[in-house]
């Protein structure tokens, strides 16, 4: 997608971080809006530290990156209230103060979990397991680990425990 020179990224997920990284590297002026108290608190500390140094206009410690042309403006505890046709975006902060910014594009960089297919399968009596982003939106390592763990227990004696996790050949009865 082609973006103008000034872009607002709204969200707090890997998609938002990746979008800001790409846009900043491409020399765009980026405003990052998140409803949370700080951006990417879910991220590993060392990665977060390097990312925030890059957002501030640096290159990160001992990391060879192209510096951003403009520092990223991070607006925490803020949400998008309205996106107008003329490129004006009305923002509202945690104290209900409204401000507006003029941008060329708005990118939604957030994820919403959708459990509908999984719930339909369970409702049909099919033993199944949510893995990766279908269960809880996280990162690639988590998705691969969940998939591998589910694959280890696949056989003809599958069942679900009380937490709806796959189990196989494990004692499930309580002995007193």
Tell me what you see in this structure.
- With 176 residues, the protein is an alpha/beta fold.
- It has 2 domains: 103 residues, FAD/NAD(P)-binding domain (3-Layer(bba) Sandwich); 53 residues, no CATH class.
- It contains 4 helices and 9 strands.
- Strands 3-2-1-7 form a 4-stranded parallel sheet, with helices on one face. Strands 4-5-6 form a 3-stranded antiparallel sheet, with no helix packed on it.
- Strand 1, helix 1 and strand 2 form a beta-alpha-beta unit.
- The protein is elongated and about 65 Å long.
- The chain starts with 5 loop residues before the first strand and ends in an 8-residue tail after the last strand.
Reconstruct the topology from this structure:
Elements: E1 6-10, H1 14-25, E2 29-33, H2 45-55, E3 73-75, E4 78-83, E5 88-93, E6 98-102, E7 105-108, H3 116-123, H4 140-152, E8 158-160, E9 166-168
Parallel strand pairs: 1-2, 1-7, 2-3
Antiparallel strand pairs: 4-5, 5-6, 8-9
Could you write a compact summary of the structure shown?
With 176 residues, the chain is an alpha/beta fold. The protein has helices at residues 14-25, 45-55, 116-123, 140-152, and strands spanning 6-10, 29-33, 73-75, 78-83, 88-93, 98-102, 105-108, 158-160, 166-168. The strands form three sheets. It has a four-stranded parallel β-sheet with strand order 3-2-1-7, covered by helices on one side. It has a three-stranded antiparallel β-sheet with strand order 4-5-6, with no helix packed on it.
